[in-house]
Specification:
Helices cover 70% and strands 5% of the residues. By secondary structure, the protein is mostly helical. Helix 2 runs antiparallel to helix 3 (50-74) and helix 2 packs parallel to helix 10. It starts with a strand and ends in a 15-residue tail after the last helix. Keywords: Cell membrane, Membrane, Transmembrane, Transmembrane helix.
Length: 305
């Protein structure tokens, strides 16, 4: 069943979009990530223009993150004060990210920038996760205890300190603000919630307890991605509602299935699976950039000319 997407200006199979939404929803439920860092490249592969994929995917993340936050609020595993500090940084970053995105779009370079960002980030993060998960699996099999993280690092020496009761922390607000700014810029340029960067930063840099991290991360993601979607919709007109609805329906169903699967697997196995998938997407994107396209010239308006 082919459906025409008016903003993307392409016809795509509706069941394919529902399936993609479902797959990313399953991953979201299994790994506690928004899934945007996998969904956006998958949309590139089926022919959705990068500018439309980025703006529309931000829309889907809002909904999947919102359902996740409600569950975490019931369990009281959301640090609202930390989430608000991250959010302030995120809104500043998203505003600057959309300005940069619009500037590059006017030059006709936005598609290349988005794809290069994905190759760089997915390569680094996938590689780090793979190595760390392998080490954890080896230590578990050999019967050694996984070493605990150090509670204090250079972050605790910075000024402008604030008490975050839910996380049990008394640290400077500067690092959370900077993490928020970085995630906001990524949300605007790459159409991701940024959880795949924010979650490790909150655990290893800020020293937050793991049980509080996912809920707090999702709380910030909702508002930053909603703000990003609004900016893209009003300045670029690149949010495709038909595409967003199909991805959303698939994503909501998939998230329920993913949550069930995730509870039956060990954390190390989940992480190594996710790392392999991230590296596979990174490899495919890099190949697309390096290989000569089948059609060297395409007719299209660049930068509105």
């Amino acid at each position: 069943m082919q459906i025409y997407l008016p903003i993307a200006e392409v016809s795509v199979n509706a069941f394919l979009l529902l399936g993609l939404g479902g797959i990313v929803g399953i991953l979201s439920g299994m790994f506690g990530v928004g899934g945007g860092f996998l969904m956006t490249p998958l949309l590139f592969f089926i022919g959705i223009p990068p500018a439309v994929a980025v703006a529309t995917e931000a829309n889907q993340i809002v909904a999947s993150s919102f359902s996740g936050v409600l569950a975490h609020l019931r369990r009281k595993t959301v640090d609202l004060r930390m989430g608000t500090v991250l959010l302030i940084g995120g809104l500043v970053g998203a505003g600057h990210g959309v300005i940069l995105f619009n500037y590059l779009k006017s030059l006709g370079q936005v598609d290349l920038l988005v794809k290069l960002c994905y190759v760089a980030f997915l390569g680094v993060i996938g590689g780090m996760m793979f190595v760390e998960s392998l080490r954890a699996i080896r230590q578990t099999r050999s019967g050694k205890k996984v070493p605990k993280r150090k509670k204090h690092n250079w972050v605790h020496g910075l000024p402008i300190k604030m008490r975050f009761r839910t996380s049990g922390l008394y640290i400077s607000v500067i690092p959370p603000l900077l993490v928020g700014v970085l995630v906001g810029i990524l949300a605007a340029i790459m159409g991701v919630g940024g959880g795949f960067i924010m979650v490790p930063a909150m655990i290893y840099l800020l020293g937050m307890p793991t049980k509080v991290v996912v809920g707090t991360s999702l709380f910030q993601i909702i508002f930053v991605t909603a703000f990003t979607t609004l900016l893209h919709a009003t300045t670029n007109y690149t949010v495709d509602i038909a595409l967003a609805v199909l991805l959303l329906v698939g994503g909501v169903i998939g998230a329920q299935i993913g949550t069930q699967i995730g509870t039956r697997m060990q954390a190390e196995q989940l992480r190594i699976l996710l790392a392999i998938m991230v590296l596979a997407v990174c490899f495919k994107l890099a190949l697309d950039l390096l290989l000569q396209p089948s059609e060297l010239y395409s007719i299209g308006a660049v930068g509105g000319h």
